[in-house]
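Problem: given the chain below (468 residues), write out its structure.
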Amino acid sequence: MQGRLFGTRVMLICTIIMLAVLPGCNTGRQSNGETGTGPKEEFQKTTLRFWMRAASKNSVTGRLVDAYNAENSDNVVIEFEVFGENYRNVIQMALAARRPPDVFELNGGLTIAQLAQSGSILPLDDYVTEEFRKNFYPEVFSQKQFYYKGKLYTIPERVSFFRLIYNTDLFAEAGLSGPPETLEQMKEYARKITEMGQGKYYGFAIALKTSSNWYRFIDNICTVSGRLGENGFDWETGRFDFMKQEKVIEYLVSLDREGIMPSDSLLLDIEVCRAQFGQGRYGMMIDGNWQVAQFGNNEIKCDVNWDSAPIPVFEGDRRGKSYMFFDMGKVIAKETEYPDEAWNFIEYLFMHQSEFVRNGEPLRTTVSANVKENIPLHYMGIKNFTDIENSVVFPQQVHNFLNNHLEGDPADVVYEAIFAGEIPIDEGLAALTERYNKALENALQDGSISREDIFIPGFDYFEFYNSR
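Solution.
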């Protein structure tokens, strides 16, 4: 059944791209002329296509699209499509065919460096006024990964961070009074639940078929314990050093080899993993703050009681603040015939960010959206997902500047080979360190990023944490 649904989805994607490209087919835009029959105003609508990775038509975004279509004075109709795990492929096919959506989300591994260098998107500088900037946290506009050669191409909407989520029903059944504080504790808690489950449920799960989950696990442990920044980058040296991830990867491998988590982790998709957590199959997993709304609004059926907690660190390690990042920005395609109308729609979404917070969605980059009265504290698990004061954002995501320079496999592919036992941990991490630093040097040489952007003299993770 799953294979049939996937095949249907792929055919649908191909059909959408073909309809967008073939001459004479419906491109999603209406003519401003008076063709056909019916009232004149019906044919004066401007249709903009808007694509996202993961938001249902009944989500907050879907409802805001409906409201915009009903309210806007530009006579614009937004056609909203969602593509899930296939999102990146769909966008790349549409860009290659020179028929991208007018507005689309920066998600699924797409980066500003890639899209701007290829001339696929428009800068937003002419639209972003000083008055507009005042609505946001100051760090939002200092994040260099949203710029290319000094021009701003997107403004992130969401404040994202991760926590350990755990099934309080299984914890109670196993006689566990609260969440683990150390990774050693987490392993023993998970082992106890797995043994109690006798194959029906497991103490810990990680969906490694979804490549971002490698980073969610490894990065969160490394950053909160002051080992590294994101994706192997070390802010203390201004270089990549994947060898500092070795202990964390050894720990993850041990959970698998000791049978503490399910044996199909490499085949487990994140959406399936979330659904199975909601059905009581797993005791713990690491996930993002969007999980609150997915369970709380029944986007994913949840039959268990659960809560969230800070991600554990190794025993003896000092704990810093949790790292957070800004994401979910929208970009305007260079091919659009209606850039002003596209910006007006994006601005409308920013004016209504409070709607997301009120519905249990992650905190937003607009300060006013995150006021206490907007946060629905009755939502299960939400408390630790709104703790923005104990979270910190790094100056930028350095790895996002390497896409056009990195030779060989990205880190997640190497992690998978290590996990599968195909290459030794130290060999794989050493090769990543060498290749990523070579890519970094190339990015520095061509001006994609500057030395001042990545090297902070005297940087100390815990001092940096405490100063924010």
